[in-house]
Amino acid sequence: MRSGDFLLMIFTAALVIFGIIMVFSASYYYSISQDGTAYSYLRRQIMWVIAGFCAMVFGAAFDYRRYRKFAIPLLILGVILLALIFTPLGHTANNATRWLKIGPITFMPGEFAKLFVIIFTAWFLSEKPDRIKSVTRGILPLVGIAAVYGLLIVKQPNLSTAITVCGIIVSMMLVAGMKWRYVFGTAALGGAGILSILLFMKDTYWYQRMTSFVDPFQDPLGEGYQAVQSLLALGSGGLFGVGLGKSVQKNLYLPEPQNDFILAIIGEELGFIGIVLVLALYCCFLWRGVHVAINAPDQFGMLLASGIVLMVGIQVILNIAVVTSSMPPTGINLPFISYGGNALLMFMFSAGVLLNISRHAPKNTGVE
């Protein structure tokens, strides 16, 4: 059996190593203010990278075809975990309840939900490929699952993860052969929902979220604070940046810069050129992922690889949109780079699954 897509491994490792460097740089002052040492976030990130490497090795070694039998149980488990957030097991931080805390263990069900829906959707659409041509047998069941997962995640609240989960399902349906008119219908429903919030729910949390990003400088010390600090960081970086480790915004101006807004610190320290190079690295990763999907030996493998590629791609786009104040600020990390154990673990495991699919590719496909 093949060893897997070598270039995919290289690009994954490059993103993870760059993430370690940038987490240390971005968290330097925040870590000192919290823990009295500049190295606390660096140590944790390295520990999560080691755990993620183990997860990636497992994903690369475990035959991807065996995930079929876990598709339905994983989907149900995802709903249960998301529902448990609204019980006493739910843990609240930064005005959001997105975590489950069971004894000393704290984790985000939303991160696992992404992978669960990818596995289920890949199984559902590959088990009977003609399902996608039927509204009642194929499209509506998946739209219903997207609605259930989306509503449970939005209620936390976590808009970006809800968009990611729903976007993954709809995009995988398109890959499987769904007609575009159904996508336009779904988009129209989503647009109607946003319009109803803007017109009839002006005193709600969601109205403030959806309007604050349009002009964050109207309320620079309130709802627009994080977006304003992010834009200042990006603007300060210019073309070549102020230099690695020399960010001003990470000095307790931009809240938790090592997490969702780490791209702003990259832009400030490494400039526009640095961001372009990071995006080029993501494009290389996605290119190899698409290559794995195209050369997968069966439809389940093709859809599973496509779902993972879509998850990474959608999340990169959403993170850029948040950091540049092109959408409401909501928790969405930069894949492989942002600080955060659950997300890094899932992304590295997913990269391992891609490697496993590439190991089963037919000969003479260029997947080595």
From TrEMBL:
Listed transmembrane segments: 7-30, 45-64, 71-90, 102-123, 135-153, 159-175, 182-201, 261-288, 300-324, 336-355
EC numbers, comma separated: 2.4.99.28
One BP annotation, GO: peptidoglycan biosynthetic process
Keyword Cell membrane belongs to the record: yes
Localization, UniProt: Cell membrane
Molecular function terms, GO-annotated: lipid-linked peptidoglycan transporter activity; peptidoglycan glycosyltransferase activity
Reaction(s) the record says it catalyses: [GlcNAc-(1->4)-Mur2Ac(oyl-L-Ala-gamma-D-Glu-L-Lys-D-Ala-D-Ala)](n)-di-trans,octa-cis-undecaprenyl diphosphate + beta-D-GlcNAc-(1->4)-Mur2Ac(oyl-L-Ala-gamma-D-Glu-L-Lys-D-Ala-D-Ala)-di-trans,octa-cis-undecaprenyl diphosphate = [GlcNAc-(1->4)-Mur2Ac(oyl-L-Ala-gamma-D-Glu-L-Lys-D-Ala-D-Ala)](n+1)-di-trans,octa-cis-undecaprenyl diphosphate + di-trans,octa-cis-undecaprenyl diphosphate + H(+)
EC category: transferase
Name recorded for this polypeptide: Probable peptidoglycan glycosyltransferase FtsW
Cellular component terms (Gene Ontology): cell division site; plasma membrane
The entry's keywords: Cell cycle, Cell division, Cell membrane, Cell shape, Cell wall biogenesis/degradation, Glycosyltransferase, Membrane, Peptidoglycan synthesis, Transferase, Transmembrane, Transmembrane helix
Record function comment: Peptidoglycan polymerase that is essential for cell division.
Membrane topology reported for the UniProt record: Multi-pass membrane protein
Family: Belongs to the SEDS family. FtsW subfamily.
Pathway info: Cell wall biogenesis; peptidoglycan biosynthesis
Record InterPro entries: FtsW, FtsW/RodA
